[in-house]
Amino acid sequence: MSKGLPKRSEDYSLWYNELVKRADLAENSAVRGCMVIKPYGFSIWEKMQAELDRMFKETGHTNAYFPLFIPKSYLSKEASHVEGFAKECAVVTHYRLKNSDDGKSVIVDPDAKLEEELIVRPTSETVIWSTYKNWVQSYRDLPLLINQWANVVRWEMRTRLFLRTAEFLWQEGHTAHATAEEAVEETVQMMNIYAQFAEEFMALPVVKGIKTESERFAGAVETYCIEAMMQDGKALQAGTSHFLGQNFAKAFDVKFATKEGGLDYVWGTSWGVSTRLMGALIMAHSDDNGLVLPPKLAPFQVVIVPIYKGDEELALVSEKANEIMAELRKVGVSVKFDNRDTHKPGWKFAEYELKGVPVRIAIGPRDLANNTIEIARRDTLTKEQFDLSTQPIAEKISSLLEIIQNDIYNSALSFRNEKTTEVNSWEEFKDVLENKGGFISAHWDGTPETEDKIKELTKATIRCIPIHHEEEEGKCVYSGKPSSKRVLFAKSY
Amino acid sequence: MSKGLPKRSEDYSLWYNELVKRADLAENSAVRGCMVIKPYGFSIWEKMQAELDRMFKETGHTNAYFPLFIPKSYLSKEASHVEGFAKECAVVTHYRLKNSDDGKSVIVDPDAKLEEELIVRPTSETVIWSTYKNWVQSYRDLPLLINQWANVVRWEMRTRLFLRTAEFLWQEGHTAHATAEEAVEETVQMMNIYAQFAEEFMALPVVKGIKTESERFAGAVETYCIEAMMQDGKALQAGTSHFLGQNFAKAFDVKFATKEGGLDYVWGTSWGVSTRLMGALIMAHSDDNGLVLPPKLAPFQVVIVPIYKGDEELALVSEKANEIMAELRKVGVSVKFDNRDTHKPGWKFAEYELKGVPVRIAIGPRDLANNTIEIARRDTLTKEQFDLSTQPIAEKISSLLEIIQNDIYNSALSFRNEKTTEVNSWEEFKDVLENKGGFISAHWDGTPETEDKIKELTKATIRCIPIHHEEEEGKCVYSGKPSSKRVLFAKSY
C-alpha cells in the first residue's frame, strides 16, 4: 500500500475517487466516461445481483434479454421520453471500418452507412414495448413480469466512477398489466423490494417516496424512489420504480382483449437499480482508512493473517488457520487465508482495512501457546483477544458478523436522523442547508415554480415526497402558500 | 399450440427457425440481426451461465467488467486482429440527437461528432490488454485470471437466431502469464472445461482439437476448440480457447519484471463461449415434436398435468400433485404444476413436448384410486404407469432424470460415431460428403492451399486437428502428399 487516503473532512470528493481506485473497485478506461470494474469491485456487484435477482424471482419475475440497439425513430414515439434521453445518446451510424489509403490506420467506411441510425440503449422501454406488442393479445397473456440485466449508455458530460458513468450496468424490470391498480401495486412492490435490499444487505437506511413532476422519469405517470444519505449529508437516489400508465402502450399500440370483451391499452411499469449502488455503498459507510463493507456483501467476510518467523512457525500457525477456516466455511462464512510471504503482517492489515474486510483474524506463536486468536473488526477498528476454549469459533464469528451488519446499519441510521431537520422558515432553510446540510423536511406549495426557484437559489432539490409522512397543515417554506405535507429537500448526487 | 413443426427430414433449417420461435426461446427484433431472448430461452442460458461460472471460479478465475466501447485506433494495434474484425464493426460516431427542423422527428446532431470514433466491442482483447498494461509490473502480479460476461457485436450480413446474430451474449476470459508454458496450460485447461461442460450438462459429445492457421482467431498463435455434430451432420464450433503468445502484450506494451530480474512481455490467452451454445443444444437433441432438453439445463425438469372433470376432482388431484411436488423439491428436482383451467390436458401435453420438459406426470381420478401416476419421458416419447407404493417418487424421478441425461448424451454420441467416416481417397471423400455427410476423418498435407481447394470444391472445411488422434503415416486425400495425422473435415455452421 502506498500513502494514506485523503481525509473525508478535507476533501470528500477526492477521498471517494481515491478510495474507489485504491481499494481496487474500479478505474477510468481510455474511453471517456466508461469505467473498468475491477475484480474486487465486481465481486461486490455480483453479490448485489444475486440477492436482487432472488428477490425478483421470488415475486414472480423472470429474466430475458432485449437488443442493445434501438432504431432512432423508436425513441421519438413517446414524446416526453425522447425529450429526456435524446441529448445523451451514443449513435451508431456505420457498420464497417476499412484501411486508410496510406494503409497505416483504419477509417470508417463511408459505404457502410446505416439506413436508419441506431442508438445504444439508454433504457429499454421503447424496444421492449415494441416487442410486447406481439406478445400481448388477451388478458390471459397478462401480466408480463420481465427483468433484464444489461449495460446501458447515457453520454454524460461530467462523470464519476460508479455515480455517473457513460456506460453502466443495471437491471431494468418492465411489466405489463391489465389494470392501473395492478400496475401501481407492482410499482410500489418494487420500490419496497429495493428498500428492503438497501436496508438488509447494504445496511443503508432509505426514505421511500414519490418524485415531483420535474424529477419524474421521462415517460412515467409517477416515479417512486428510495433516497439515501451519504456521509457528506448529500442525498443519493438509490433506485426508482415507475408507473408508466398507458403511455408506452399507446406509443407502441399494445392493446389487449379484456375479460369483459372490450379492447384496452395495457398498463405498464419499469424499475431499475444500477452500479450506482456501488457508489452509495462506498460513500455511506467507509472511513479515512478505507472501505467498510457490510458482511452480507463483502467478497470475503474474514481474512486470516499469520504472524510468524520462519517455516516452522508458519506451519504451526497454518495448521490452526486451516482448522478455523474449515469451521467457518461449514457455517457459510467466506474466509481467505493470506499466507503470502511477499508481504509483512502490517502491510496486510492496512491492505484489508483499505478493502473493508469485515473481520480480521491474526494468529501468532503466542496465540498457539495460549489457544487464543486476535479478532479485529473493520467497522469499529477494535480488537479483542479471543480464547478459543470459551465458545466455538464458528458461533463467535457468525454472531459477530451479524452484530457488524446491524451496527453499520444503525450507525448510518443515527447519522441520517441527526442530519435530518424539520424547518419552518426560509431563513432556517438556508441556515440549515449551509451550516448543517443533510435532509431538510419542509412544507412546499406543490408548484414547479417554487421548486425551481429553491433549486436556483440553494442547489437543493426535492428528493421526494416521503410516503411515511403524515398529512400536516403548514405553509410553504419559500412562498408561504398553504401546504398539506412536508417534502424532503437536499443537495444530491 | 398452432399446427405442427416442419419436419427435420424435409427442411432442417426451417424446422430449426420455427422451433426456436414456437418454443419461446428467441425471436428477431426490429433491428436487423439482433435477437430478443425470451424468458424460457433465457432461463436455459442462465443455467448454462451458472455452471460455467462455477467452473471458472473453481479454477481460480474472477469476473470483472470492461467497457462496451473501444477507440477505433486500438483495434489496429494488433495487425491480424484488425483484419479479422474491422469489416464487421458497429461504429459510434455521434453522442447526441436533436429535433429535426419540422419538429416531427429526431436527427443526429452534427455538432455532436466524436473526435475519435468508437467501435462496439466485437471481442475485448484490445481494451483489456490496454488495461492490463497498468495492472502488471512484476511477476508477482501474474497470473491475471479474469473473465467477463458481456454482450458483443459483429455486424454479420446473414444472421440466424442464436447461431449467428449481430449482437450476442458470451463470456470472454482473458488471462496473462509469466511463461508461455503456463499460458498454453491455461488454454488447454479452458478447452477441457468447455468440453466437460458440453458433455456433462448439454449432453453434447465434442471433439477437442486445434484449428488450422486459416481458421485461427485473429491475433492468436494457436486456437483450441471443441466441435460438435448437429443432427443434419454439420459441425458446430461450440467453444474456442486461444493461446495469444505475446502478440497483444507487444501491441499494448505489457511488460513485467521477471523473477530473474529481467524484463519480458506477458503471455496471454483468451477463451469464450456464447449464446451460440443455445443453437447447438437445440439442434443436437430436438425432434419433430419440439425441443428435447437435457434435465441438467431444463428450466423445469418435471411438469405435472392434472386430468379432471369439475372442481371436486381437481381438488383431489391437486392434493396428490402437491404431495409429489413437495417430495421432488426436497431432493432438488424442479417441478411445475400446470393447473390452468384455460387449456385442456391434450393441449398442455403438446405444449410441454414442444418446450422439451424432460418428464411429464399426469394424474387423474383413476390414478388416485389405484395409487398410480402416469410418467412420460420427453426424449423417448414413452409412457409408463407408475405404482407409487413400489418406490419413493423422489427416488424414482431423480434416477429417471439421470437416465434421461445419459441417454440423450449416448444417443448423440452414437449418432456422431455413426456419422464419422475415415476416408482414404478423394473419390471416397466426395462420395461420403455428398451421400452421408457428417465428419470425415482424412489425411491432409498441412498446406492452406489444399485446405482452400477442398473448401472451394466441396464447402467442407477442416474443423480441427483432433487432439486424441494418434500419429499415423498416410497421404493427403486431395494432393497425395505425405501426412502424419488425420484431421476432421465437415460442412459447418
TrEMBL record, chains A, B:
List the catalysed reactions. tRNA(Pro) + L-proline + ATP = L-prolyl-tRNA(Pro) + AMP + diphosphate
Instruction: Kindly list the GO molecular function terms attached to this UniProt entry.
Output: proline-tRNA ligase activity
Keywords per UniProt: Aminoacyl-tRNA synthetase, ATP-binding, Cytoplasm, Ligase, Nucleotide-binding, Protein biosynthesis
Span of the signal peptide: none
PROSITE patterns in alphabetical order: AA_TRNA_LIGASE_II
SUPFAM superfamilies linked to this entry: C-terminal domain of ProRS, Class II aaRS ABD-related, Class II aaRS and biotin synthetases
Major location (coarse): cytoplasm
Tell me the Pfam families matching this sequence: HGTP_anticodon, ProRS-C_1, tRNA-synt_2b
Q: Which residues form the Aminoacyl-transfer RNA synthetases class-II family profile domain?
A: 27-294
Give the enzyme's EC designation: 6.1.1.15
- SMART domains the record matches: ProRS-C_1
Name where it's found.
Cytoplasm
Record note on quaternary structure: Homodimer.
The domain-related comment in the record is: Consists of three domains: the N-terminal catalytic domain, the anticodon-binding domain and the C-terminal extension.
Task: Give the family, as the similarity comment puts it.
Answer: Belongs to the class-II aminoacyl-tRNA synthetase family. ProS type 3 subfamily.
Role = Catalyzes the attachment of proline to tRNA(Pro) in a two-step reaction: proline is first activated by ATP to form Pro-AMP and then transferred to the acceptor end of tRNA(Pro).
Provide the protein name. Answer: Proline--tRNA ligase
User: What species is given as this protein's source?
Assistant: Algoriphagus namhaensis
